[in-house]
Amino acid sequence: MFTLTGHGNVIFSAEEAENLRNYMLGGGFLHIDDNYGMDKFIRPELKKIFPENELVELPFSHAIFHQI
Question: Does residue 30 lie in a domain region?
Fold first, then answer.
């Protein structure tokens, strides 16, 4: 698992985006902590990793929030 935290702007190079894509498609997990306003910067960068997918908000009823 990788965790991404910080303040403000995040930029992935093409190589970093490809590496993250391969990591996540292989079962890896990326936790992004948006406590300091990274949301508007990270969304375009996530689009580099998965350009074919849209971001969706998971409801609290989703199984990922109820693991033991």
Answer: yes
Number of domains composing the chain: 1
What are the average pLDDT values for consecutive 10-residue runs of the chain, which has 68 residues?
83 96 96 83 94 94 90
pTM of the model: 0.79
Burial (CB count within 10 angstroms: exposed 0-12, middle 13-18, buried 19+), residue 20: buried
First to last CA, the chain: 18
CA–CA separation, 46 vs 11, rounded Å? 10
Q: Residue 65 falls within a domain, yes or no?
A: no
